[in-house]
Amino acid sequence: MLDRNLVANNLERVLENLHKRHANDELLSDLEKLSAIITRRRELQTQTDGLRGERKKLSKQIGSLMREKKMDEVEQVKHDVTKIGNRLDLLEDERKLLQTQEDDLLLAFPNLLDERVPEGADEEANELVETWGTPKTFDFTPKEHHILGEELGLYDAERATKVAGTRFSILKGDLAKMERALIQFFLDTAEDNGYTEVVVPYIVNRDTMTGTGQLPKFEDDLFKLTSEINGMDGFLIPTAEVPVTNMYRDEILNEEDLPIYLCAFTPCFRAEAGSYGKDTHGLIRQHQFHKVELVKITKPEDSDAEHHALTENACKMLQALELPYRKMRLCSGDTSFAAQMCFDLEVWLPGQGKYREISSCSNFGEFQARRMRTRFRTKAKGSKPQFCHTINGSGLAVGRTLVAIIENYQQADGSIEVPTVLQPYMRGKTKISLEG
Fold this sequence. Notes:
Layout: H1 4-9, H2 11-20, H3 25-67, H4 71-106, E1 127-132, H5 145-151, E2 155-156, H6 157-163, E3 170-171, H7 173-192, E4 196-197, E5 203-205, H8 206-211, E6 234-236, H9 241-245, E7 252-254, E8 260-269, E9 288-298, H10 303-320, E10 325-329, E11 341-349, E12 354-363, H11 367-372, E13 375-377, E14 386-387, E15 389-397, H12 398-408, E16 416-417, E17 431-432
Parallel strand pairs: 4-8, 7-13
Antiparallel strand pairs: 1-10, 2-3, 5-6, 8-9, 9-15, 10-11, 11-12, 12-15, 13-14, 16-17
């Protein structure tokens, strides 16, 4: 959430940011509305504070006047106090209404972009930072992962559709084992990099979704429960980022507790409301998928370095799997609502003949922490709590990594080699084939 003082005192900066993000006219109009509401709410606050002071001063006079038996004056002062009270009630009702409107509008505005984010409307303007590995050449035409999986009898979309509908899948045998192997490999690697593993709820409430920025803007992309949980709307998590980051909502941490490194394996559930017709085959875009998430909570001065380090942690996993990838800095029009800067890691898929996103590593600055009211206090005597910075990234998306392995490690006979680093997790198996 943006700082309301920034909107009030530096409206031009917020407006420039919206233009850089290619915001629509409705959001630009809402910014004008928000600015006017903040101005009027502040005026009312000043008026009500003044009236309360005046009422308090008059109230103190009543006792003195009564002791002096100046009853006529007492009645006049009481009348004035009542009149002020009635005026206060009216102004306070208006102030509370404006405060609610202000809070609701603030939730609708995206984070301020880092100045290093390149200008651009969409992914075509994303900036190539680096590449790793050379896309493999084949002496046969490489197949897409879902075709190979079906030919091996280990991927079943038809039965998944019968069970749940489209955009679901069933993995069997060695592909199911490889998915499990990837999860364990990612978690072990995260632990080696200093992350503490947590197991979190897969259902969260509205406050939690609001804290990390999924609500109110992206409600259509979420799976909402028909039954409330503990009196609140419940949602299936779209990513472990949501419950893990919100672990520290409404808390003031000690400076020595930071940075916090956490990782979590969870299923993820996404309605994919805006993706009709995209990636309808295979494991690329599913309603349910697995992911290992990396989360950091840091001090502001450390967040940029920690963001780069988290991104490098994800890169090292791809390198260990020997999967060619490229690192992209997202442009202004492609950077997510809550992020101030994001690096996407895109893995090479020979079956599709292009790079596809496998991890997004984002620095949110204080944007999420302000929504969650997550702060820390320095050791300095009398210091006031400051907002933390939050960072997260996929380390990695399990299904998409499986896709990349199937397509990059496929052989001419339709078998799939097992990456060396995964072989210990698969009881020494070196190849997936029809022969088993």
